[in-house]
Design a protein that fits this description.
By secondary structure, the chain is of the alpha+beta class. Helices cover about 30% and strands about 25% of the residues. It is built from 5 helices and 12 strands. Strands 1, 2, 3, 4, 5, 9, 10 and 11 form an 8-stranded mixed sheet that branches. A two-stranded antiparallel sheet has the order 6-12. A hairpin with a 2-residue loop joins strand 7 and strand 8. The chain is globular, with a radius of gyration of 16 Å. The termini are far apart.
């Protein structure tokens, strides 16, 4: 089931993401994007290890010493990276994981994403440099002999959600396929009946501010 979901959702994700790798025309950033922060640049770079056979896109290993801020954002080598099209659960939103046991959904999401990254060993490429300190990236991971979009994999496992832009439209439409599959299977965060869906919360906040 997971493999078929990855294949279907990944196909649509690839159609949306791959053209961006050679250009700079990104949709408007989501309103819930964390504020850009300044970090001290170290100048260190991770050696590239792979090149996409069709367009020459260079992928580098996910940095082993990355410091995660949320389930979709991390800092490495003096730069802050965000995974394109993915929204993690929000810090400060509670989720009941068992009777009487409540956890912070954002922190739980972050812990599980760190484990997933460690196990899948993804490679990443920069889609767009926002400025010298911040970038948006796309990552891929390998399952068996096939490579899949990392965000699709995270969403299909229930540890991420399809992000929307400032107009409320999906940034990567194909991610909705993976999200609906995870919701139906009640995997990951979907296993908890009171899971605070981050996109719904952020959309409501955006509407209230207008």
């Amino acid at each position: 089931m997971l493999i078929s979901t990855l294949a279907a959702s990944g196909l649509f994700a690839g159609i949306s993401i791959m053209p961006l790798l050679s250009g700079s025309n990104l949709p408007d950033p989501p309103r819930h994007q964390d504020p850009i922060i300044l970090v001290q640049a170290t100048g260190s770079k991770t050696a590239a290890v792979d090149t996409h056979e069709n367009d020459g896109t260079v992928f580098a290993p996910f940095p082993a010493q990355a410091q995660f801020e949320t389930g979709d954002t991390w800092i490495s080598g003096g730069r802050r990276y965000r995974l394109y099209g993915l929204q993690a659960c929000l810090r400060g939103t509670p989720v009941t994981i068992s009777p009487g046991v409540v956890r912070d959904c954002g922190e739980l999401n972050l812990i599980m994403v760190q484990a997933l990254i460690r196990d899948t060993k993804p490679v990443c490429t920069t889609i767009k440099d926002i400025d010298q300190n911040n970038a948006v990236v796309g990552c891929q991971t390998t399952t068996g002999k096939r490579r899949y979009d990392l965000a699709t994999y995270m969403i299909a496992e229930g540890w991420g959600f399809a992000a929307v832009d400032t107009t409320g439209h999906l940034i990567v439409p194909g991610y909705r396929v993976a999200e609906e599959s995870a919701r139906a299977a009640r995997v990951g965060l979907w296993a908890y009946s009171d899971m605070p869906h981050p996109v719904s919360i952020l959309t409501d906040q955006g509407s209230a501010q207008r």
